[in-house]
TrEMBL record:
Record key words, sorted: Apoplast, Cell wall, Glycoprotein, Secreted, Signal
Organism, as annotated: Morus notabilis
PANTHER family tied to this protein: POLYGALACTURONASE 1 BETA-LIKE PROTEIN 2
Gene Ontology CC annotations of this record: apoplast
Protein name, UniProt field: BURP domain-containing protein
Pfam families: BURP
């Protein structure tokens, strides 16, 4: 992960993964960006834990 301000590598953070996206809207930005559909992929968010 990179610090969003300095772009330095950091070794602390949290990943939150949504394993079941089947209930999400097919027009969710993630699916539009990745060219996928609900229930076909897992989606993870990465947060800096500072």
């Amino acid at each position: 992960m990179l610090d969003p301000n300095s772009k330095a590598k950091i070794n602390h953070g949290v990943a939150i993964c949504h394993l079941d996206t089947s209930a999400w809207s097919p027009t969710h930005g993630t699916f539009l960006t990745l060219g996928s559909n609900p229930g076909q992929i897992e989606v993870c968010d990465f947060r800096n834990n500072k």
